[in-house]
Amino acid sequence: EPDVTIVSGLKDTVVAEGDDVTFRCQVSYENARDVEWKLQDVALQNNEMNEISVERGKIHTLTLRKVTEQDIGTVTFRVGPHTSTA
């Protein structure tokens, strides 16, 4: 299996409280395994507050819904040994 790398990393984002915010990270190969999203070092799961998806096979997205002050912090995307933060 080829080593998947991050082609386009996360971008820092400012958003108003109560709004949704989306982070995108592009990887080098489709169907990458061993992918993880974190907020403040806490692993995120796909649920009603966090939408985790993959667009066109290579673009991994995380949407945080109706953010609050408690959501302030570092978002981390990891694929294998590679990470990107915003």
UniProtKB/TrEMBL annotation:
The gene is Obscn_3. It comes from the Eukaryota. Its main location: cytoplasm. InterPro entries: Ig-like_dom, Ig-like_dom_sf, Ig-like_fold, Ig_I-set, Obscurin/Obscurin-like_Reg. Keywords: Cytoplasm, Disulfide bond, Phosphoprotein. Signal peptide: none annotated. Residues 2-86 form the Ig-like domain. It is found in: Cytoplasm. PANTHER family: OBSCURIN, SI:DKEY-31G6.6. This is OBSCN protein. GO terms for cellular component: cytoplasm. SUPFAM superfamilies: Immunoglobulin.
